[in-house]
């Protein structure tokens, strides 16, 4: 009879985990990944404060109620294009590695924002945004990279709060930049003169700032971001070697200056050499941690003929055949629904706040028939969105790790999914508040939405990662998840813009919000059909806690 094992900590936080020595938290590589990532939300979010006015300047229509529809098309063009290539980028990352795909995505973002800044018509703006979506598949690849960096469940709450926090930080900077730098000739006339390039292209400056951020992100990625792919991370990376050399040179210069200032008469007897041997890495993904991150190396390190360190590769893992079991499919569906309604909120809120009160009052018949607007300018909207980003960052960093440890990822995701419909039902009633209470009401709704988003997204990511049978399937799984989310994010702004215009014309300004609330009900229903994920990390824990069993037992859902 097989002896009983002590229960281990599951993704839902049930049971008590036995004390064990954990591998070091991959702090350095997550920081580098965050520095590469932050430029993308800056570029993406910077357009929202001015997109309404940009569409109006295109002179497409004289009916201002139609502007929200075209603004939704511009926002959706990126995600429609991203949807069409997400699986391709995910599979490509499985073949050539995560790092090259991430860097190509950053390059595509930089090219896209530059072209968008030079847009003077709707077709050019649509093409620029679509180009960025075609060339960027980083959503799924980023999730895969984080999953490969984090090898134990105890690190997941911290690790999976990093990328949402980075997005929140970008959500602070992006709207501030977009709102402050759009139309610089009008807003900063002392610096930007009429008749200059900034007058001809009034929305170039915020996009130029975004392009510079992307360029910096590419440089950081080339020099310091390490490959995480199980089979590709053993290959030599000349970019990382150059980055390590630069860091070593700077450290030497500082050390020599400090030493000379203290003891100028002392001379070193032997030359110091702090540079690592070529081909050898010293951060979280190095061979010295292979016992905690992958298969155990069976051969000693040796020098090749060219004098470089010859790092033996682990045995190649078998690629799984049945990747998409029922649990994974349901998690991806709920991820798509989550992306649909949160993107709808993000795209609709600036338009909602920009809309002027109707010239001719439409008869009000509560609780459903009413129409009004706020008429806020770009600076006010940019400030509101930045406050949203600040709160989201704080919530992600402090709230999510604590709550997910107490409730577990699955229970937390179900709770948030159940609570979303009330948010969308209440939002349109903000226009009925007195003027002195409107801003307080807006901030209340924003805090409400941000709290839910910062808890829902990383919970869903943890569930999806823990359901993967092996690390080799992560790229494909996250690629399909990113494709689903991109399609949802594409339909969200497009459909919401159309419904918002219809609602304003008919006097039902809450139409789009209530329709979105119905979508969230479907997401809540499906979330209760998700079973407890069990994948590669559970098998690893079973193998570590059960010395009697010679092999990790197969995933219970791998062949479903």
Automatic annotation (TrEMBL):
Domain of life: Eukaryota
UniProt keyword annotation of Phosphoprotein present: no
A Pfam entry, by short name: MFS_1
Keyword set, alphabetical order: Membrane, Transmembrane, Transmembrane helix, Transport
Entry-linked InterPro entries: MFS (IPR011701), MFS_dom (IPR020846), MFS_trans_sf (IPR036259)
Annotated GO MF terms: transmembrane transporter activity
PROSITE patterns attached to this UniProt entry: MFS
Region (Disordered), start-end ranges: 1-22, 263-294, 536-560
Major facilitator superfamily (MFS) profile domain span: 29-535
Compartments where found: Membrane
Membrane topology, from the record: Multi-pass membrane protein
Transmembrane segments: 30-55, 67-89, 101-120, 126-150, 162-181, 201-225, 323-343, 380-400, 412-431, 437-458, 470-491, 511-530
GO cellular component: membrane
Extent of Polar residues compositional bias: 282-294
Chaperone is among the record's keywords: no
PANTHER family: MAJOR FACILITATOR SUPERFAMILY (MFS) PROFILE DOMAIN-CONTAINING PROTEIN (PTHR23504:SF15), MAJOR FACILITATOR SUPERFAMILY DOMAIN-CONTAINING PROTEIN 10 (PTHR23504)
The protein's name in its UniProt record: Major facilitator superfamily domain-containing protein
Organism: Lasiosphaeria hispida
């Amino acid at each position: 009879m097989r002896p009983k094992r002590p229960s281990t900590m599951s993704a839902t936080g049930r049971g008590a985990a036995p004390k064990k020595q954990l591998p070091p938290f991959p702090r350095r590589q997550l920081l580098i990944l965050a520095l590469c990532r932050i430029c993308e939300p800056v570029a993406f979010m910077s357009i929202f404060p001015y997109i309404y006015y940009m569409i109006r300047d295109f002179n497409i229509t004289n009916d201002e109620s139609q502007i929200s529809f075209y603004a939704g098309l511009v926002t959706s063009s990126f995600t429609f294009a991203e949807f069409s290539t997400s699986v391709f980028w995910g599979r490509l990352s499985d073949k050539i590695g995560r790092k090259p795909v991430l860097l190509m995505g950053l390059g595509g973002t930089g090219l896209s924002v530059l072209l968008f800044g030079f847009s003077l018509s709707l077709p050019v703006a649509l093409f620029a945004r679509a180009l960025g979506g075609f060339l960027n598949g980083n959503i799924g690849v980023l999730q895969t990279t984080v999953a490969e960096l984090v090898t134990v469940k105890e690190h997941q709450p911290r690790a999976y709060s990093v990328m949402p926090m980075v997005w929140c930080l970008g959500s602070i900077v992006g709207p501030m930049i977009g709102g402050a730098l759009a139309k610089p000739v009008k807003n900063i006339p002392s610096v930007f003169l009429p008749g200059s390039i900034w007058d001809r292209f009034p929305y170039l400056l915020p996009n130029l700032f975004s392009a510079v951020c992307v360029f910096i992100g590419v440089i950081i990625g080339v020099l310091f971001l390490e490959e995480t792919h199980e089979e590709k991370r053993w290959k030599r990376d000349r970019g990382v070697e150059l980055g390590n050399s630069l860091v070593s040179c700077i450290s030497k210069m500082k050390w020599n200056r400090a030493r000379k200032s203290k003891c100028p008469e002392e001379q070193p007897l032997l030359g110091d050499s702090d540079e690592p041997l070529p081909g050898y890495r010293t951060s979280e993904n190095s061979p010295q941690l292979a016992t905690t991150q992958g298969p155990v190396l069976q051969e000693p390190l040796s020098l090749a003929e060219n004098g470089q360190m010859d790092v033996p590769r682990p045995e190649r893992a078998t690629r799984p055949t049945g990747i998409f079991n029922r649990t994974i499919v349901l998690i991806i569906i709920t991820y798509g629904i989550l992306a649909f309604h949160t993107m709808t909120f993000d795209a609709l809120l600036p338009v909602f706040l920009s809309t002027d009160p109707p010239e001719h009052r439409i008869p009000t018949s509560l609780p459903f028939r009413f129409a009004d607007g706020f008429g806020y300018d770009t600076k006010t909207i940019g400030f509101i969105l930045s406050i949203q980003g600040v709160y989201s960052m704080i919530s992600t960093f402090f709230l999510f790790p604590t709550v997910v440890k107490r409730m577990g990822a699955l229970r937390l995701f179900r709770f948030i999914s159940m609570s979303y419909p009330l948010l969308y039902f209440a939002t349109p009633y903000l226009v009925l508040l007195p003027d002195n209470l409107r801003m307080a009401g807006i901030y209340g709704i924003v805090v409400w939405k941000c709290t839910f988003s910062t808890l829902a997204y990383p919970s869903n990511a943890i569930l999806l990662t823990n359901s993967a049978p092996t690390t080799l399937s992560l790229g494909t799984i996250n690629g399909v998840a990113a494709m689903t989310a991109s399609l949802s994010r594409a339909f969200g702004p497009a459909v919401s813009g159309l419904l918002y215009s219809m609602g304003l014309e008919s006097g039902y300004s809450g139409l789009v919000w209530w329709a979105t609330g119905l979508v969230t009900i479907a997401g809540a229903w499906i979330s209760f059909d998700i079973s407890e994920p069990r994948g590669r990390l559970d098998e690893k824990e079973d193998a570590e806690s059960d010395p009697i069993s010679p092999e990790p037992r197969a995933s219970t859902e791998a062949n479903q």
